[in-house]
Amino acid sequence: MSDNPVIAEVARGALVESFHRGAGAVVDADGRLVFAFGDVERPVYPRSAVKAIQALPLIECGAADRYGLTQEELALACASHSGEPKHVATAAAMLAKAGLNEDALACGAHWPLNAEAARALAREGRTPSALHNNCSGKHAGFLCLACAQGLPAAGYEAPEHAVQRQVKAALEDVCGERLDEARRGVDGCSIPTYAISLRALALGFARMATGRGLGGARAAAAARLFAAIAAHPFHVAGTGRFDTQAMTMLQGRAVTKTGAEGVFCASLPELGLGLAVKADDGASRAAETAIAALIARFLPAAAETLAPFLCARVTNWLGTQVGEARPAGPLAAT
Amino acid sequence: MSDNPVIAEVARGALVESFHRGAGAVVDADGRLVFAFGDVERPVYPRSAVKAIQALPLIECGAADRYGLTQEELALACASHSGEPKHVATAAAMLAKAGLNEDALACGAHWPLNAEAARALAREGRTPSALHNNCSGKHAGFLCLACAQGLPAAGYEAPEHAVQRQVKAALEDVCGERLDEARRGVDGCSIPTYAISLRALALGFARMATGRGLGGARAAAAARLFAAIAAHPFHVAGTGRFDTQAMTMLQGRAVTKTGAEGVFCASLPELGLGLAVKADDGASRAAETAIAALIARFLPAAAETLAPFLCARVTNWLGTQVGEARPAGPLAAT
């Protein structure tokens, strides 16, 4: 096991109660490692953090134009959404444009990530469908891609299907790293997830933001997706979520994307930088604290905006603050 | 920061995706350290893991007898329950016996930990009260203690209130360690939590199970609480929870109790041993894996029963297994 540094700590009273180790990389679009901590060469599953890269073929093959996908729909194709009514309706609309419905989705159903949305569903006597799955927009995008290319919709989630082969090729091209079939896992939504180094992930996010090192059509597709995300941060996550709040507040100065098991990626377009972190233990709270600290380090103007994430309140059930989560080690405030 | 070993890992496909570090101690009732890994002297907040010890004064002062508390109610006083209807009704009954109702609870309200119970509440158009708080049984016990002693009920959660002073004294006596006011935090339910070493926690659980080293009345109170817990494991946690499942399956051969932020304690009465673990990062999944591995190490007959916890399935949203969580390092299967 790698011996990564402590990157975030959670204090209660005068004591640090828990702490998180991890690694992170900041890379420019030419591949220069600008800043790093921990082992940034070890391959990690990027999970949902790379959804924007996975959505590139949807634009490049003409499917987005053919079906007239809106900016909200493109943002949802890059989303881990909270299953709120707007998210569900947008996913359903994408499928309808390809002549499909939720029965075509292979992602499985789960209760909305947003607790109030889940309770509202229960209040109406309903249960969730695959549309409520946080990945339904990505899957709807995959299905649009399959239909536009005349590929069979069934089995679109399998590694050998042409949809996933195109997605894998896009990841390899953008991140500049070969994806090894021996390091392939199955994601929660049943598509393949390929392990990749944090250095390559950060490079991918630098290229997505700048277009440098990508072909012209790919660079244009990346710009279109990032513009959609920046314009509709609610569609990428949801009420109260880090991505939605941070991107809303930073107004396009950062594009961020969470992934399961403590992965977080971001782009800082004006600086041409890509950022990628992974908490060893898979904790979201550590990944959020770390990516906020990294953004603030390179974009000092964002520090005030990101303050609620840089020093997150830990409260009791009455709402009184009893502790805080904060960056540590190489990410500690100086 | 201490450099504790990796104790649990979560694999997806052929790769370890995330891993957890931590420490743990196994101690007999005479205080001998039988087995240990990581730093077991560092004080950690025990959180809810010590609720049975915190419930001792309730028995010792005669409140449990005066109010005729049932075994289910005593188990609930030691519980981090899931807010299911039986838990809520039991907490309400305890309060009624002391002439109080939920308005006296200082723990705050939260939606039931059990997702189906939360949705059922929403379906009925209701919102949670303090009775649904996972600590409502412990708080109802504190209120019974206050009322039986003629103490003011208001403020019973404060460190300087006689209830919390008695609770602190019981912890110091049973665990054999002085609790430092400088290492006091506020728990999620607003009562004080004092940092204590894993070695002392494990000793406390060995003493609770055996009565050794405790005065006669305290030993009898401990035996009564442990008998109530073993007889009613549902009341200590709830549907699908580790404590309820493990204690139901092990039929009294282990008494276990989870605490927030990756703490887990257990007693093995027939061996006279106490066990305590803390995951550095606060992850429940790591603490569950670690305590299951420790129990199986000293009670090999339990290994088969605990198999679902020793190698926990990681599934996608369709329910297909895509990985596993398992013990590692000093706890790896040999």
Shape of chain A: globular
The major pleated sheet of chain A works out as: 8 strands, antiparallel
Integer average pLDDT of chain A:
97
Q: How many DSSP H or I helices of chain A?
A: 14
Summarize the helix and strand pattern of chain A as letters.
EEEEHHHHHHHHEEEHHHHEEEHHEE
Strand residue percentage of chain A: 15-25%
The count of β-strands of chain A is 12
> Which structural class fits the helix and strand makeup of chain A?
alpha+beta
Cα radius of gyration of chain A in angstroms? 19 Å
Helix content of chain A: 25-40%
Oligomeric grouping of the chains: homodimer
| CA(first)-CA(last) distance of chain A | 29 Å
Most extensive protein-chain contact, per-chain counts: A-B, 56 and 56 residues
- The low-confidence parts of chain A are none
Describe what this molecule looks like in 3D:
The structure is a homodimer of 334-residue chains. Chain A is of the alpha+beta class. Chain A has helices at 51-54, 56-60, 63-66, 71-77, 85-97, 115-123, 136-148, 162-175, 198-210, 216-231, 233-236, 242-250, 284-298, 307-310, and strands spanning 6-12, 15-28, 33-37, 43-44, 184-186, 192-194, 196-197, 255-259, 263-268, 273-279, 312-315, 321-327. In chain A, the strands form three sheets. In chain A, strands 1, 2, 3, 8, 9, 10, 11 and 12 form an eight-stranded antiparallel sheet that branches. In chain A, strands 4-7 form a two-stranded antiparallel ribbon. In chain A, a hairpin with a 5-residue loop joins strand 5 and strand 6. The longest helix of chain A has 16 residues, at 216-231. The model of chain A has no long low-confidence stretch (mean pLDDT 97). At the A-B interface, strand 1, strand 2, strand 4, helix 6 and strand 5 of A face strand 1, strand 2, strand 4, helix 6 and strand 5 of B.
